[in-house]
Design goal:
Blueprint lengths: L1 H19 L5 E8 L2 E5 L4 E4 L5 E3 L3 E4 L4 E5 L5 E4 L4 E7 L3 E14 L8 E6 L2 E5 L3 E7 L4 E8 L1 E6 L5 E5 L2 E6 L8 E2 L11 H15 L4 H11 L5 E8 L5 E9 L5 E10 L2 E11 L8 H4 L4 E3 L8 E9 L4 E7 L2 E4 L7 E5 L2 E6 L2 E7 L12 E4 L5 E2 L3 E5 L8 E7 L5 E9 L8 H4 L4 H9 L2 E8 L15 E7 H6 L17
Parallel strand pairs: 9-10
Antiparallel strand pairs: 1-4, 1-6, 2-3, 2-5, 5-8, 6-7, 7-9, 8-9, 9-12, 10-11, 11-14, 12-13, 13-16, 14-15, 16-17, 18-19, 19-20, 20-21, 21-23, 22-26, 23-24, 24-27, 25-26, 27-28, 28-29, 29-30, 31-32, 32-33, 33-34, 34-35
Length: 505
């Protein structure tokens, strides 16, 4: 009872402090350039904006040629109003920021929002909502078009007349016209008009996206690999037999494209085909010289304190050089197992999208930023980009209940389907069973795990590469990669021998 009374008393004090504290509803000017002004309603005129001025919510702001205004909201989001732009700061308090662009262009740097917080940029025809990202929004009065360019993260763009919504990701642009449902976003072209992020940084993001989505020919992949292997931090190669009895030459390596990124690449060569996979991991800050210090905790971390370095995004591709599967996760953060008394932190992305041959088939956006997926946050799509009902799923273990061979097939309402077979195999192509791992000591299990391989085989109604069929006659994307490199780089923990010992009765 005493604890309860103390808790209630503390709550009352916190609530009273919140009520008594002055509410800030303004944007603080942090930088001025050229001729910028704010509408003085009392005086009925435009007056110059002052350095370090606080512009109240409800104010109209305009800039002339070669002018700009940079500011910060009470939520610590940053904005830059570009030249020849006019905006209205509709809301600017501790929980909500809403800015309307009448004409021109504005850039936003949005911090991670709390579940109840809001950040929106409006134009006369659109609303752009985000949960933590960097992006530009512009509006052309003459053509009545609104454009959004995303540099980091993901935004949700809605055309107001039709109500149609589209997700726009890093490296993409979307142009909306009044009364027309928006089409699919396109790759961004940097024009250098806005500052804050350099053209070289924007170009780097675009290059990564182009590599993951467009660079799938065998010659292009091998040419890049030949250069990257010279600087590879981890590298492994061997010949083995896959789960279907085919001989595979496997090469894999890890490189660092940027100080906060590392990329894993796996190349598979069989007699009649070539398959590859790439995964780019992006972190919240610069990676340590010892990569394992980051990789061992990039998905989960023990302790009461949130890790200072964590995974924020994953971009991946698997391809047979014609067909491809892309997975894009952005806006990642670490969430505690218990908000009041955390002991474990788990990475969860703010958004995730799954593409097959450049068509998005499903995805989710963590709208309330709670680190969980709810049914309302999941969406499934047909080949035209329209939302459809959830697919039916077929699950199985084709090689028996104790074998590490799993199968899943999803069939969509429009007839599209995709299936994945996952195997754990040894170098001879044998599918591993629980019995193979039982009764082993720690050292025996470590040696055993280093020699294992993972294999994923995608089949889909959308695949077209007739030169990449499996023994069942289905077109596949088929990739084998080793546990050794994953263990050495810290991405995979060694198995616990206690989990595979024989049960005692």
């Amino acid at each position: 009872m005493k604890i309860m009374k103390k808790t209630i008393a503390a709550f009352v004090l916190v609530a009273a402090a919140a009520v008594c504290a002055p509410l800030s509803a303004e944007v603080s000017v942090t930088r001025l350039k050229g001729d910028a002004s704010v509408w003085d309603a009392a005086g009925g005129r435009w007056r110059p904006i002052l350095k370090n001025e606080k512009i109240e919510a409800g104010s109209h702001v305009r800039t002339s040629r070669r002018s700009s205004v940079e500011g910060e909201t009470p939520q610590k989001h940053k904005i830059k109003i570009d030249e020849n732009t006019r905006v209205i700061i509709e809301e600017a308090d501790r929980t909500s920021s809403v800015i309307s662009i009448i004409s021109g262009r504005m850039r936003s740097w949005v911090k991670k929002l709390k579940p109840a917080d809001k950040y929106q940029v409006k134009t006369p025809i659109s609303v752009i909502s985000v949960r933590g990202t960097i992006y530009d929004v512009s509006y052309d009065e003459t053509g009545k078009t609104s454009k959004v360019d995303v540099l980091e993260g993901v935004v949700e763009a809605r055309e107001e007349t039709t109500g149609a919504e589209v997700l726009v990701r890093a490296g993409e642009s979307l142009t909306m016209r009044e009364g027309v449902a928006p089409s699919a976003p396109e790759p961004t072209r940097s024009d250098g008009a806005a500052s804050g992020i350099s053209d070289s940084a924007v170009a780097a993001r675009q290059a990564v996206r182009a590599e993951m989505f467009d660079e799938i020919s065998r010659d292009a992949v091998l040419s890049r690999a030949a250069q990257e292997m010279k600087a590879a931090e981890y590298q492994n190669g061997k010949a083995l037999v896959d789960a279907r009895g085919l001989r595979v030459r496997m090469e894999e390596y890890i490189v660092r494209p940027a100080d906060n990124q590392f990329k894993y690449v796996a190349l598979n060569t069989r007699d009649d085909r070539f398959d590859f996979g790439k995964i780019l991991f992006t972190f919240s800050g610069g990676l340590p010289s010892d990569l394992t210090l980051a990789t061992r905790t990039m998905f989960e971390s023990e302790g009461a304190e949130k890790p200072s370095l964590y995974l924020t995004g994953v971009d991946s591709v698997m391809s047979n050089t014609v067909d491809k599967v892309n997975e894009i996760a952005a806006g990642g953060d670490m969430y505690p197992d218990d908000a009041l008394n955390p002991s474990r932190w788990t990475m969860f992305p703010g958004s995730y999208d799954f593409y097959v041959n450049d068509i998005k088939r499903w995805g989710f956006a963590d709208a309330n930023a709670d680190g969980r997926i709810s049914a309302s946050e999941l969406s499934y799509y047909n080949s035209s980009g329209g939302k459809i009902s959830a697919p039916t799923a077929e699950l199985g273990m084709p090689s028996g209940g104790t074998a590490f061979h799993f199968y899943q097939k999803n069939v969509y309402a429009d007839g599209f389907w995709i299936a994945a077979s996952d195997y754990i195999i040894n170098d001879d192509g044998k599918i591993i069973t629980v019995a193979d791992m039982a009764e082993k000591t720690s050292s025996e299990l470590k040696d055993f795990a280093y020699k294992l391989n993972f294999q994923r085989e995608y089949t889909s109604s959308a695949f077209t590469n007739a030169s990449a069929k499996n023994s069942d006659g289905n077109i596949t994307i088929d990739l084998v990669f080793s546990s050794k490199l994953l263990i050495d780089s810290g991405m995979l923990s060694l198995p616990d021998p206690k989990r595979y010992s024989a049960p005692s009765y």
